């Protein structure tokens, strides 16, 4: 485990504060209503039963929260582990569940999104389910007119806008597989992903707003697709009015494509296992992995957890601040709330524009009741002082959520006080791109401990194993594993079977085949409360985003002056981890501040702003194993002033001395 984090764990393990949820919420929340109906006396009893009878449980969830064209004949098939299949023979479509059925039920007038532009002089606007339904139908016809067919991949490189969700829905509707790339990624990061999934069509925008100013996006999209032979068309949303480079015959305006089409379009009937999307995430190596998700399971996981964990009902105003380009946006901005017919707030921009009061003002203006964000944002706002939240009325908030990294107790208490009026419980939800929905989390009736994600949710048998595959006792740490599958789980890596097996399933295959290795370590205290400790692989968590050390390193060594590079994460008060790079320059190249700056710019242009190293240190050598592997663990320990352990087995133990204390 990351050195230096053990200390944190110890403190967390001694956490004795317990926050009880408001009585009325605990008694009336959706999860407890269900438990009462089933005759469970305690939450513990309910969670245990749902794990033990997980197939029965998911069967009920699939029938409660999803509408099927044709019912499935079997809940789950594990005959080809680790390729689990769910809802065998069932026919379904995500678009039907997210939008179409609400229209049929006469709920078209409900608002799906209150969209708030970043610039304060632009009008805010409500998008109803009916409007989304019509636009998506037209867009789906537009995609068909471009020759898009079921199974084709479509890359979406768009900012935080309702049209981005509509692009996703249009793909789902016709059975095309969408693959979003966060618009903050560089053109290269985008291009690599387009090429990997061999996208036929790309969605982008002319630009986006940042701090009130229009910024171009189309040129990055063009640069990204220039070597992607699969791309036939680029659909461009007009957002800013910025002038854009245009490729005749390939580029199409979003509005022109939509305007020409009829609003009638039949929704494709999909097999439950057919793919809904691919989303790339970071793994141990530098190459991002394309996680595949299926229509059937995905119609169940996000909707169920929105209902149970966030307790969403039709009178809620819900706001998840994540960008749709990440999994949190897929499950908890787009599909989960839409499947339940919920009204959400969608905000285009950053929390500090025009000032640090912006988020509180949105909460006040729209009377947001359920709010979901990341610890890094909480810590950033906490640092700005209490006068910002105090200026606004936040009394509408009844439930809070957190995701991405541990919510440290200090931030927890502040978040509960200033966003949650000192009464709203915080659902600290642990999950992953791979899981598709929350896995470990409190429910609204759970007494919560700061810094803890409480327990595995109903339907999950998530536990902690030691290296041999034995369950560890309370108080001890180990690997988070799922011994049983769940509907919204990943189905595969796009075109990379070997790595799929290696990264998630090989670890316990000999002892317990079919056990999913999550890639995180955790411990449970004496009361069984879970505390997540961090990743076991070489993946950084920067402001809640996964970035592989290897990705930043390969970006650095691609620079003409760099011979070798090692990247580590340094604990950072706000971002969780800050990226620190140790660089060996090529012969004859002189170190300078300008070169350090140039390397940061280089990483920015090749990977995007999230990956910029906070520090670049030039060194003469880096400690390596005899097989030539750079020892990040040793570098990190030395740089942070921690014991480096036994370094005698290294090929060059003296290299440790070159690493400065940072
Ligand atoms: C990794 C998954 C799932 C949406 C956001 C990121 C870390 C996630 C928590 C939490 C501690 C957390 C884990 C996990 N993580 N939620 N509540 N407490 N750590 O999705 O990019 O797939 O990253 O984020 O390390 O493995 P992702």
From TrEMBL:
Which biological process terms from the Gene Ontology are attached to this UniProt entry?
Answer: acetyl-CoA biosynthetic process from acetate; carbon fixation by 3-hydroxypropionate cycle
Coiled coil stretches, renumbered: none
GO cellular component terms attached to this protein's record: cytosol
InterPro entries hit by this protein:
Ac_CoA_lig (IPR011904), ACAS_N (IPR032387), AMP-bd_C (IPR025110), AMP-bd_C_sf (IPR045851), AMP-binding_CS (IPR020845), AMP-dep_synth/lig_dom (IPR000873), ANL_N_sf (IPR042099)
Give the enzyme's EC designation.
6.2.1.1
Concerning PROSITE patterns, the annotation shows:
AMP_BINDING
- A Pfam family: AMP-binding
What sort of enzyme, by top EC class, is this? ligase
Outline the extent of the Acetyl-coenzyme A synthetase N-terminal domain.
44-98
Name the keywords, alphabetized.
Answer: ATP-binding, Ligase, Nucleotide-binding
Which parts of the sequence belong to the AMP-dependent synthetase/ligase domain?
107-481
GO molecular-function terms, A-Z: 3-hydroxypropionyl-CoA synthetase activity; acetate-CoA ligase activity; AMP binding; ATP binding
Record-linked CDD domains? ACS
Positions of the AMP-binding enzyme C-terminal domain: 551-629
Q: Which family does it belong to?
A: Belongs to the ATP-dependent AMP-binding enzyme family.
Q: What is this protein called?
A: Acetate--CoA ligase
């Amino acid at each position: 485990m990351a050195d230096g984090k053990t200390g944190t764990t110890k403190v967390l393990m001694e956490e004795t504060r317990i926050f009880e949820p408001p009585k009325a919420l605990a008694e009336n929340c959706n999860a407890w209503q269900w438990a009462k109906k089933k005759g469970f006396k305690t939450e513990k009893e309910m969670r245990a039963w749902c794990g033990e009878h997980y197939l029965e449980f998911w069967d009920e969830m699939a029938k409660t929260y999803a509408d099927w064209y044709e019912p499935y004949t079997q809940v789950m098939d594990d005959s080809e582990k680790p390729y689990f299949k769910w809802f065998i023979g069932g026919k379904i479509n995500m678009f039907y569940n997210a939008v179409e059925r609400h229209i049929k039920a006469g709920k078209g007038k409900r608002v799906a999104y209150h969209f708030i532009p970043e610039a304060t002089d632009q009008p805010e606007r409500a998008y109803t389910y009916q409007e989304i339904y019509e636009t998506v139908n037209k867009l789906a016809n537009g995609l068909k007119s471009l020759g898009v067919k079921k199974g084709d991949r479509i890359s979406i490189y768009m900012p935080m806008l309702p049209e981005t969700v509509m692009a996703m829905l249009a793909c789902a509707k016709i059975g095309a597989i969408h693959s979003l790339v966060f618009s903050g990624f560089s053109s290269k990061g985008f291009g690599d992903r387009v090429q990997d999934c061999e996208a036929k069509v790309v969605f982008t925008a002319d630009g986006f707003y940042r701090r009130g100013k229009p910024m171009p996006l189309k040129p990055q999209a063009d640069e990204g697709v220039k070597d992607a032979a699969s791309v036939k068309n680029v659909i461009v949303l007009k957002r800013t009015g910025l002038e854009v480079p245009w490729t005749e015959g390939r580029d199409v305006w979003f509005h022109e494509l939509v305007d020409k089409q009829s609003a009638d379009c039949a929704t494709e009937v999909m097999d439950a296992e057919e793919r809904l999307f691919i989303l790339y995430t970071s793994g141990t190596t530098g190459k991002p992995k394309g996680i595949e998700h299926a229509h059937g399971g995905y119609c169940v996981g996000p909707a169920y957890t929105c209902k149970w964990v966030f307790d969403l009902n039709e009178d809620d105003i819900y706001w998840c601040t994540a960008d749709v380009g990440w999994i949190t946006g897929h499950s908890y901005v787009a599909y989960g709330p839409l499947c339940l017919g919920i009204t959400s707030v969608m905000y285009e921009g950053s929390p500090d524009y025009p000032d640090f009061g912006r988020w509180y003002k949105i909460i006040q203006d729209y009377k947001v009741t359920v709010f979901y964000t990341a610890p890094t944002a909480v810590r950033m706002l906490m640092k700005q002082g209490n006068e910002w939240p105090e200026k606004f009325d936040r009394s509408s908030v009844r439930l809070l959520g957190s995701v991405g990294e541990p919510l440290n107790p200090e931030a927890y208490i502040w978040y509960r006080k200033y966003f949650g009026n000192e009464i709203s419980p915080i659902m600290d939800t642990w999950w992953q791109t791979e899981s598709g929905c929350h896995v470990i989390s409190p429910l609204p009736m759970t007494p919560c401990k700061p810094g803890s994600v409480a327990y595995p949710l109903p339907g999950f048998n998530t536990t902690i194993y030691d290296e041999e595959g034995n369950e560890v006792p309370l108080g001890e740490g180990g690997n988070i594993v799922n011994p049983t599958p769940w509907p919204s789980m990943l189905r595969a890596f796009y075109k990379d079977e070997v790595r799929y097996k290696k990264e998630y399933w090989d670890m316990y295959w000999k002892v317990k085949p079919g056990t999913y290795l999550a890639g995180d370590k955790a411990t449970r205290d004496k009361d069984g409360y879970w505390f997540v400790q961090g990743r076991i692989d070489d993946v950084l968590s920067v402001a809640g985003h996964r970035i592989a050390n290897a990705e930043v390193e390969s970006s650095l060594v691609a620079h003409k002056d760099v011979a070798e590079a090692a990247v580590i994460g340094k604990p950072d008060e706000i971002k969780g981890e800050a990226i620190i790079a140790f660089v060996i320059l090529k012969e004859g190249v002189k170190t300078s501040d300008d070169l350090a700056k140039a390397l940061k710019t280089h990483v920015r242009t090749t990977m995007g702003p999230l990956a910029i190293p906070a520090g670049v240190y030039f060194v003469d050598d880096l400690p390596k194993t005899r097989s030539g592997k750079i020892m990040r663990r040793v570098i990190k320990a030395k740089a942070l002033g921690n014991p480096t352990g036994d370094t005698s087995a290294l090929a060059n133990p003296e290299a440790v001395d070159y690493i400065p204390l940072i």
